[in-house]
Amino acid sequence: MKDKQDYYYWKAKKEGYRSRAAYKLLQMNRTFKLIREGDLVLDLGATPGGWSQVAVELGAKVVAVDLNPMPPIDGVTFIKGDIMAPETLERIKEISETYDVVMSDASPKISGKWTIDHLRSIDLARASFNIAKEVLKPGGNFVVKVFQGEEIQKLFGELKPYFRFKKFHSPKASRKRSAEVYFVGKRFRKI
Ligand SMILES: C[S@@+](CC[C@H](N)C(=O)[O-])C[C@H]1O[C@@H](n2cnc3c(N)ncnc32)[C@H](O)[C@@H]1O
């Protein structure tokens, strides 16, 4: 019998998405209405490009960033860079000073050690939020992946004041045993 992992893997192949991750964004967008037609979306940790494909289909223009190369997609400008590095923020800003949506599915290389992977993912989530703080428009939306663990409440405490709506969410397309959850923040405000 096919498990859930196979289900989304094969669905992505059939429907032309580059990753099963595309369904996580589709599901979250259905629930939270994160991306609107005409938006400029910043996609952090974007390779191979499933989330960028979804954003383009929703009528957005996308700037995508990843350490690894990404084959081109119409409507997507790609930056090869490290989201932890200050020069990457400069390159993002050269394309646009502001974005309607910042989304990050960035994941560390999995070591298999729960605490190490958790802490690395917290660092990536913080780096994503530091970028969002600089470029997200007031009223804009933010979504970021984090692997669960003891630092998650601290991170939530840091992000919370910046959003009128905030929630941790686990999309159906996430693997059942996965440690990942997504922080969804809507209606950003500068503080
Ligand atoms: C799960 S994949 C993203 C999948 C993507 N959302 C999709 O739908 O195809 C995670 C990505 O995060 C990237 N990544 C990890 N650390 C990064 C960093 N410091 N800067 C930029 N990208 C990073 C990895 O290279 C990898 O491509």
Which properties best describe this structure?
alpha/beta, Rossmann fold, globular, 7-stranded mixed sheet, 7 strands, single chain, 191 residues, 6 helices
Question: What is the element layout, followed by pairings?
Answer:
Blueprint: H1 4-15, H2 22-32, E1 40-44, H3 50-57, E2 61-66, E3 76-80, H4 86-95, E4 99-104, H5 114-135, E5 136-147, H6 152-159, E6 163-169, E7 180-188
Parallel strand pairs: 1-2, 1-4, 2-3, 4-5
Antiparallel strand pairs: 5-7, 6-7
S-adenosylmethionine binds at residues 18-19, 21-22, 45-51, 65-68, 82-84, 105-107, 124.
Oligomerization: single chain
Percent helix, as a range, is 25-40%
**Secondary structure: number of strands:** 7
Indicate the low-confidence ranges by residue numbers.
none
> What Rg, in angstroms, do the CA atoms define?
16 Å
Whole-number mean pLDDT: 95
Percentage of β-strand residues:
25-35%
Counting DSSP H or I runs of 4 or more residues, the number of helices is 6
What ligand molecules are bound, each kind once?
A: S-adenosylmethionine
CATH topology (fold) name: Rossmann fold
Strand arrangement in the largest pleated sheet: 3-2-1-4-5-7-6
Largest sheet: 7 strands, mixed
CATH top level assignment: Alpha Beta
Task: Name the helix and strand elements from N-terminus to C-terminus, one letter apiece.
Answer: HHEHEEHEHEHEE
Give the domain tally: 1
By CATH, the superfamily comes out as Vaccinia Virus protein VP39
- Name the structural class: alpha/beta
**Terminal residue distance:** 51 Å
Shape: globular
